Amino acid sequence: MLPRRSFDAFRVLEPEQRAAHLARFLEHLRKRDGRIELSERLLLSREPKMRAMEQNDVRWRGEIDHAGFERSLAGSRAETLDPRTEWVLAAARANEGERYGVEIEIDRFVRRGNRFPGVPCQETMLYVMLQEAYHCRILVDLCRACGLDFQPKPPGWASRSLIVAIGTLPSWLRWVPVMAGELVGCAVFRILNENTHLFEAQPDVEAHLRNLMRQIWVDEVLHVAYLRALLGRRGLLLVRVALPLVARSVLREVPQLRNLGCNARRIVESAVGGIDIPDEIDWMHGDGEGEGSFDRGASIVAAA
Q1: What is the pLDDT of residue 164?
Q2: How far is CA 268 from the centre of its chain?
Q3: pTM score, two decimals?
Q4: N or C: which end of the chain has fewer CB within 10 A?
Q5: Beta-bridge mates of residue 36
């Protein structure tokens, strides 16, 4: 077995390490996703692959609770659904907050004259924001593959209020809750991927769902590493404080995640235990087996 490659999301990078990571990340983005078409919210090299996935005719041909899915999307949180329907519902809603926040950030970016505050390279952050927009399309396609129709809606009022408040934070400080959200995303999409076995009766569907989940997870891991390189010691300390709060907020909005084994403590433990580096990201260096990050993160695990 190959040794685990991981990085400590809370390790403060030296200036030369930060510069090197940011340069390699931008190179990776340009190579993989291609040119940005801001007016259409497109990444020109990613778009053909996205359209090919959307044209894939893989469909779940088993039982699924269409009516319960629709009721839950409309706001019914009390009822218990079958495990497959709850999995799809959790996946569909897991990105609601980020999608809503990304739309607001991109609109602000344009109004400010194509500028994000507190970042050294506007192009890199714009790639990250547009990747989150693609995640929304991936989750729509995921629901379609499960035989369900899903049109994204704004998150609940508490999440909307928090997202609007984040936009008022000065300069680099606004990226603190964003990084906490990306850490939550890493854990959530990994847990969702672990539960695609619910569709193992139809291997083509399970494989397709795993592929969709992995695409989002790989992006989330890179977003965490990117934001770590942006934030210094103060910022990363604040991310530690914000992480349990953001985790609980997501679980309030998407309670179905709890039935999949996802809770605030598990999310925090996943973050402080080291973030696994996807095999396809061969340019990114690991920090070993977490380098004692469990000890350094003990206080926020307890807080969860």
Answers
A1: 75
A2: 15
A3: 0.90
A4: N
A5: 43
